[in-house]
Amino acid sequence: MEATIRAGKTELRIARRAQALLLMADGVSANDTAKLVGVHIRTVFEWRERFRDADDPSAKLADAPRSGRPRALSRNPKRRR
Asked: For residues 42 and 48, what is the distance between their CA atoms, to the nearest angstrom?
């Protein structure tokens, strides 16, 4: 988890989840975890449920697949002339 937080190219949302997971594992309250990580307390409760029964919590850091149509545009669209 700590390596995930320190990695330079880790997405902010994944780094926040990893930091929150470490804080919760150390027994920090949900309210304090929310303040330290910079999210709403409800988000901490959702993350707590997400990681509660996980055999490998690091596998739960990434976003779950979303429903709906995939993106039609790439992140680096070619410039049209």
From this structure: 10
Assign residue 62 a region (left: φ > 0; alpha: ψ between -120 and 50; beta: otherwise): beta
CA 14 to chain centre: 3
Tokens 């002339």 sit on residue: 81
Task: Give the predicted TM-score (pTM) of the model.
Answer: 0.62
> CA nearest 24: which of 53, 47, 56, 58?
47
List the chain pLDDT tens, one digit each, 81 residues.
555 555 566 678 888 888 898 999 899 999 999 999 999 999 999 888 888 877 777 777 777 777 888 767 766 656 555
Torsion of CA 54, 57, 58, 64, to 10 degrees: 50
For 70, the 3-state DSSP assignment is coil
